[in-house]
Design a protein that fits this description.
- The complex is a heterodimer of chains A (about 950) and B (about 110).
- Chain A has about 950 residues and is an all-alpha fold.
- Chain A is built from 40 helices and 2 strands.
- In chain A, about 75% of the residues lie in helices and about 0% in strands.
- Chain A has a two-stranded antiparallel ribbon with strand order 1-2.
- In chain A, helix 1 (about 5-10) runs antiparallel to helix 4.
- The longest helix of chain A is centred in the N-terminal third of the chain and has 37 residues, at about 15-50.
- Chain A is elongated and about 120 Å long.
- Chain B is mainly alpha-helical.
- The termini of chain B are far apart.
- Classes of the chains: A mainly alpha (about 950), B mainly alpha (about 110).
- Chain A: This is PH adaptation potassium efflux system transmembrane protein.
- Chain A: One of its GO terms (cellular component) is plasma membrane.
- Chain A: It is found in: Cell membrane; Membrane.
Chain lengths: ~950, ~110
């Protein structure tokens, strides 16, 4: 059951929009609430075992080689957080239903909320560090989407981006920390990690691990100096702030501190880093909160300050401070959620969040005012409310640390100072908003909110009171069981009571209350002081560096990526030339030791012909038809080169492809301007020519280096030796294609088929208007009788030739590729000479089906081998060959080659006929 | 002989690259064809230059050219056709949609 809690919530994230579409806004809210309630009920159902001291584990293996498992655990800490997440989640769902307006897409909101809730539950329930990290990143993404919920607003987008940048950056550091931690422990399972605390602390990699993990924690929990994203995140709708920025997301960081407390705590670096950062955050944010004019901004800074307090408590590193830390996590979640909701109500009913305008709201909304005042008093640490208890515990712990001597002596003093500021900003929240004269220029006349908008606040404030008055009966058991799993052993004695007698902590509380009230009274003076000496805020520094990076990137991108493909290509080639040149320059012998072969006159002559033809292609590039003809000359000389250098198969293939390509380009030329003007400036052409010469030179040097060295013959010898006994063919090239590298051929023919289908899809969108006049206009007798009759018998001869080439392919030059091309040529000749439609009727078959049959044949021959428990494709032939005669072996390879043949025929016909057919549609070939 | 084939490969590459850098789609197709010839010859040359030694097994003959580059080039030729065809049709389609046969799709020279 345990693993399903987060997974089902995550899956259910797709339901609210569907429910809303089906049955209106309430349906979305009900669905979300139902899912959350289910998760809550499941947690409660599992809780008795936890309260009796057990730890439940469940899950499955996922990628065990990587140490990643879908494993979950439920102990006291996980249960506490799970209850907070689902419990406060339920209240937020109700609140959001009445907070968001008619124009807001409620389905999307609830969907994102469930996504976030599932991820959050995943963090607290995960029993695997890598799994935890995945959920951690998911909360960053979820928070990005939720903060940016009102995405048409620029500040929402900015806040979301900032939050994502900072928290995802922290997530990256956390990944590093977790990998190190898993490496040290030898397992990513939390259960193993928690048991290996001493090993980790002794390990030389401890400090690096700690630093990386803390970076993740501090970004998530908005600790100084990485806190600046949280105030910006207040652009989110208030239900989001109430949920993410009080109870859940920012608590994920301190949750991790608590979770890894037994593993990492109680060392000097932990004490100074965690405690130091916590203290600094506590003080700085409490100070900053006082000067916020936006009520949500004040609450945001107060949240940062309280998170600092919790961090400080964990940083002190004793079991008692850990108990106090857990206690404050609970209390803060409750009173801060209610405060955010109250602030949301004020914003909702007045249309304003600025405390310089919001004044004297008590008489407009007395009920809300009472609730908000109680919650703010809890924040300030007023007795009878929950905040007082944990703050008292905090004060007591600081005194305890001071008794140890050293820098700790300062701690109680600084804690009291932070308490003073905390009371002062709470007083400002209460007095400025609800009293202090009359409202100024509010967009709306304030009034009480709808009933159900206030219900969640009422519930939370009642909880504040209950915990504050009778802590032992309410939060006591939960706190104890959660603290046990943080401390990792029996708990030290502590007492949950309001009255501990007259002692030092009580004095500190009294001092804080009195000092805070005084400070609030003297606030005008403080505001002037702050205006004169503003603090350098991280946000500004961050923003400045971010802008600098972005503008630099834009400049570089604008310069490099100017939209010209030619430019990109030039850059690519230039880089290749430079890299190659560097390799050449860094030494090594250019020429090898193998003696050169003699040159013969015929080869020289043909090479000269090729050179002239290639240069003429370049020279006549703008007379397109001429260029195409000269290109054909180049191709024919290449065919002869293949013959000369003992590659008869290549010669056959190149020859047939040459003809097919020429027909294709001739067809295409009809749709392009026959001549083009000179496009580029002389300097550009010179630059390109220089680049081209450099590339050509580089390739030539490379070829020279290889050709003058002796070849490695191991592979060749193997292939030559096994071709006949293993592959059953004397034509080694063909055996390689259909047997040794059959899988490659399968891939290549598939690519060919995809290219053909792509062409069909492209041509379905139509072709440009032909630039040349239709044939009919130029020639009255388009299909001369002699030609038409003459080619018909040729078809039979061509097909016979193809069959011959195909059948002998395994032992002599030929094979499926060549035979396919020959067949296609024979067919195309019929179309060229005769009437298109008439030929299509006589010869028309479905070429796409032909391709499909070919691919199927290849795949089936391959699959046949798996039926004999041999790997796909290749081994079949070897396997079948040994027990049987060579005859059977050849037949098996032939089916494969037949597949290749069919695909080649299908592809060539499909491509040429599609282009030709388009011509008929334009009335060019036949009309 | 080696020097000759190296020169041919270099020249074909240079011509192909120069045409590839031109602005019109048809010229680019021409350049690609030239470059394909160069690459195919280059690949074949990787098996060294063997004359009168086709890799067709015959009894009593022990001297064969390297069949591996040949198998590579054979599929490369056929795939090359597929690519040329696709590129050509893409160029035609681009001309229809953009009214220009510029590789950048710019409309300045219709």
């Amino acid at each position: 059951m345990l693993p399903f809690i987060p997974l089902i919530v995550l899956l259910a994230a797709m339901l609210p929009p569907l429910a809303e579409r089906y049955d209106g806004r309430n349906a979305g809210a009900w669905t979300t609430a139902l899912v959350t309630a289910l998760a809550l009920a499941a947690l409660l159902f599992l809780s008795p075992a936890v309260f009796s001291g057990g730890v439940q584990r469940a899950g499955w293996e996922w990628l065990p080689e990587l140490g990643l498992n879908l494993s979950f655990r439920l102990d006291g800490l996980a249960l506490l957080f799970g209850l907070l997440i689902t419990g406060i989640g339920l209240l937020v769902i109700l609140y959001a239903r009445y907070y968001l307006s008619e124009h807001d897409n409620l389905g999307r909101f609830y969907s994102l909320l469930l996504l976030f809730m599932g991820a959050m539950l995943g963090i607290v329930l995960a029993d695997n560090l890598l799994l935890l990290l995945m959920f951690w990143e998911l909360t960053s993404l979820g928070s990005f989407l939720l903060i940016g919920y009102w995405h048409p607003r620029a500040d929402a987008r900015r806040g979301a981006r900032l939050a994502l940048t900072v928290t995802a950056g922290g997530g990256l550091a956390l990944l590093g920390g977790f990998l190190l931690l898993g490496h040290i422990v030898g397992s990513f399972e939390l259960s193993a990690v928690l048991a290996a605390g001493e090993t980790v602390k002794q390990h030389p990699g401890y400090l690096a691990t700690l630093l990386l993990i803390l970076l993740g924690v501090f970004t998530k929990s908005a600790q100084f100096p990485l806190h600046f994203w949280l105030p910006q995140a207040m652009a989110a709708p208030t239900p989001v702030s109430a949920y993410l920025h009080s109870a859940t997301m920012v608590k994920a960081g301190v949750f991790l501190l608590a979770r890894l407390f037994p593993v990492l705590a109680d060392t000097d670096p932990w004490f100074f880093l965690v405690g130091g950062v916590g203290l600094l955050t506590l003080l700085f944010a409490a100070y900053a909160a006082l000067f916020q004019h936006d009520i949500k901004g004040l609450l945001a800074y107060s949240t940062i300050s309280h998170l600092g307090l919790i961090t400080l408590l964990f940083g002190l590193g004793t079991p008692l401070t850990a108990v106090a830390g857990v206690f404050h996590i609970i209390n803060h979640a409750i009173f801060k959620a209610s405060l955010f909701m109250a602030a949301g109500i004020i914003d909702h009913e007045t249309g304003c969040r600025d405390m310089r305008q919001l004044n004297g709201l008590f008489k407009f909304m007395p009920q809300t005012a009472v609730l908000a005042i109680l919650a703010a008093a809890a924040m300030a640490g007023v007795p009878l409310l929950n905040g007082f208890l944990s703050k008292e515990m905090f004060f007591a712990q600081t005194i305890h640390s001071a008794a140890l001597g050293g820098a700790g002596v300062l701690l109680p003093v600084l804690a009291t100072v932070a308490g003073v500021f905390s009371v002062a900003y709470s007083a400002r929240f209460i007095h400025d908003v609800f009293f202090n004269g009359e409202p100024i220029n509010l967009p709306r006349i304030p009034h009480e909110p709808p009933r159900y908008l206030r219900v969640p606040v009422e519930i939370l404030v009642v909880v504040c009171l209950l915990v504050g008055i009778v802590p032992a009966y309410t939060v006591g058991p939960m706190l104890a069981v959660a603290a046990v799993s943080v401390v990792g052993g029996p708990l030290p004695p502590y007492s949950l009571a309001i009255w501990h007698g007259f002692n030092l902590p009580l004095l500190m509380s009294a001092l804080a209350l009195a000092g805070g009230a005084c400070m609030y009274g003297q606030r005008q003076w403080l505001f002037r002081l702050r205006d004169r000496y503003p603090l350098p805020v991280g946000k500004i520094l961050f923003g400045r560096s971010q802008r600098a990076v972005i503008s630099a990137t834009r400049q570089i991108t604008g310069w490099l990526e100017n939209g010209s493909l030619q430019c990109y290509l030039a850059w690519l080639l230039g880089t290749a030339v430079l890299a190659g040149g560097w390799g050449l320059a860094s030494g090594g012998k250019l020429t090898g030791e193998v003696p050169l072969q003699p040159l013969d006159g015929l080869s020289l002559l043909l090479a000269l012909l090729l050179a002239v033809a290639a240069l003429l292609t370049v020279f006549w590039q703008r007379q397109r038809l001429t260029a195409l003809i000269v290109l054909g000359v180049v191709g024919l000389v290449v065919v002869l080169a293949f013959v000369r250098f003992s590659a008869p198969d290549l010669a056959l293939t190149q020859l047939t492809v040459e003809v097919v390509t020429t027909i294709l380009l001739l067809l295409a030329l009809r749709f392009l301007p026959a001549e083009a003007m000179v496009e580029s400036a002389l300097s550009r052409r010179l630059r390109d020519a220089g680049l081209a010469i450099m590339v050509g030179l580089g390739v030539a040097i490379l070829a020279w280096g290889v050709l003058t060295r002796a070849p490695h013959t191991a592979l060749v010898d193997y292939l030559l030796a096994t071709s006949l006994p293993g592959g059953g063919g004397a034509n080694v090239v063909n055996v390689i294609l259909v047997d040794f590298r059959g899988f490659d051929t399968l891939g290549e023919t598939t690519v060919l088929a995809i290219a053909a289908l792509g062409i069909v899809a492209l041509l379905a969108g139509g072709l440009p208007t032909p630039t040349a006049p239709p044939v009919a206009a130029r020639d009255a007798d388009r299909h001369p009788l002699l030609l038409r009759m003459g080619v018909r018998p040729i078809l039979a001869v061509t097909l016979l030739l193809a069959a011959y080439v195909f059948l002998r392919g395994h032992n002599l030059p030929g094979g499926g590729f060549v035979a396919g091309l020959v067949t296609a040529l024979g067919l195309v000749t019929q179309y060229l000479a005769g009437d298109f439609r008439w030929t299509a009727e006589k010869l028309g078959f479905d070429h796409q089906r032909l391709i499909a049959v070919g691919l199927l044949l290849i795949a089936l021959t391959g699959l046949m081998s798996t039926a004999f428990d041999h790997p796909f494709l290749t081994s079949t032939f070897a396997h079948l060959h040994f027990p049987l005669t060579g005859e059977f072996e050849i037949a098996s390879a032939m089916i494969f080659d037949l597949g290749v043949y069919l695909i080649v025929v299908g592809v060539v016909m499909l491509i040429l006929l599609e282009l030709g057919q388009s011509e008929t549609a334009e009335g060019a070939w036949n009309c | 002989m080696e020097l000759l084939i190296v020169g041919v490969i270099g020249l074909l590459t240079a011509c192909g690259v120069y045409l590839l850098l031109r602005a019109r789609s048809f010229t680019v197709v021409l350049g690609l064809a030239l470059l394909s010839y160069a690459v195919n010859l280059f690949l074949l040359a990787m098996g060294r230059l063997a004359m009168h030694r086709p890799p067709i097994l015959e009894p009593g003959r022990w001297d064969y050219s390297d069949p591996v580059p040949q198998a590579l080039v054979l599929t490369a030729i056929v795939i090359g056709f597929g690519m040329t065809a696709f590129l050509t049709v893409l160029a035609l389609r681009a001309r229809k949609d953009l009214g220009s046969d510029q590789v950048d799709g710019s409309r300045t020279h219709p």
